[in-house]
Amino acid sequence: MRSEIARALLLALGLGLAGPGPAPAPSRDFLPATPDHRWAFPSDWRAHPGYRNEWWYFTGTLAADGDPGRRLGFQVTFFRVGLAPQSPALPSDWATADAVMAHLAVTDVAGGSHHFGEVLWRAVPLLGGFPGAPDPLLAWARGPPGTDGRWEVRLEGEGFRVAARDAAQGIALELSLRPAKPPALQGPNGFSRKAAGDGYASLYASLTRLEAEGTVELGGRRLSVRGEAWMDREVGSSQLAPDQVGWDWWSLRLRDGRDLMLYALRRKDGSVSWRNGTLVDRAGSVRLLSPDEWSVRATGSWRSEASGATYPSGWEVAVPGEGIRLAVLPEVRSAENRSSLVPGLFYWEGPVVALGPSGEAAGEGYVELTGYGERSRPPL
């Protein structure tokens, strides 16, 4: 997933592939994701040189201490994009095989506002990188121009600490994230197929429930917060298949203790090319869901005046065999991330609530929607 964003990064750095048109076959120069990967944590939280794409993707919902009605959504994402399978043999600190991109978003539910910041650098000593063991730092990037400090995700005990700030956008956060469940492998042995053809796959693991605590700054005010989050960790070298333009992704933490992940990859006409899902029980055991076990139906739409894209907005989600029937609603309809660094890079990513059949609160989570809009970047 998220390879569309990675391709936009390559294009922005002047190192991308061809422009719009059918997606090329998976690269043979980078390591492929394979079903026999030997997972090991915490080492698999670290960077995987040799693969083309990987990301550390954190999303969650927070409440302000002393003001539980003040709800915030957040997204912090670090991308490593392989510019080459190996670093060039040049006697220079500026020689690199990787680029680093990071996104930060804070959604103010009560205020109905969404704020987005970003950084984009080559992975070189002054700008960003992906340190190896034993350094607890997993990924970092220098802050955007005009912002002191750096963005980073690091190991902290069995969990993580994430920090990012964008002074121009008036947003910042620093959060400690502690897993409440073991890693969930998304697909057989964490091998997540994206199409029927060979090579269209990734290594995919999630921490579906993280206890979050820390601070968020928004509009000049610093808030102590706590809540729950989700982390996606994905590694691979494939691209979307030629018939795919984007995806819809749902991550839902249900009040009964279960966690649900669903994704659908779409064709240009809106039909589904490939889809999959998982259900994680209260204890952390994972059940893979076949496509015929679940359904999602959009119940509304929202059009972005800024990008011109029209996104689905609101869904009916059902997993009948598990007794799951939900109405999933965006908390802020305008939660669109629009890059000022990469022309044509925009996608919807925001917090959602889940309601049961009688309208009762049933859970919360995040939804990501990519590949909508005529000017959206084509997939990698």
What does this structure look like?
It is a single chain. The protein has a single domain, classed as AttH-like fold (Beta Barrel). 3% of the residues lie in helices and 51% in strands. It contains 1 helix and 25 strands. The strands form 3 sheets. Strands 1, 2, 3, 4, 5, 6, 7, 8, 9, 10, 11, 12 and 13 form a 13-stranded antiparallel beta sheet that branches. Strand 11 and strand 12 form a beta hairpin. It is globular, with a radius of gyration of 19 Å. The termini are close together.
Distinctive features:
mainly beta; 13-stranded antiparallel sheet; 51% strand; AttH-like fold; 25 strands; 10-stranded antiparallel sheet; 380 residues
The rounded distance between the terminal residues' Cα atoms is: 10 Å
Report the count of strand segments. Answer: 25
CATH-scheme architecture: Beta Barrel
CATH class category name:
Mainly Beta
Total number of distinct structural domains:
1
**CATH fold-type name:** AttH-like fold
Write a brief caption for the model:
With about 375 residues, the protein is mainly beta.
How is the secondary structure organized here?
Elements lengths: L2 H10 L40 E12 L2 E16 L15 E11 L4 E10 L5 E2 L7 E6 L7 E7 L2 E8 L4 E9 L4 E2 L5 E3 L7 E18 L2 E16 L9 E9 L4 E8 L5 E9 L5 E4 L5 E4 L2 E3 L6 E3 L2 E5 L4 E7 L5 E3 L7 E10 L5 E9 L11
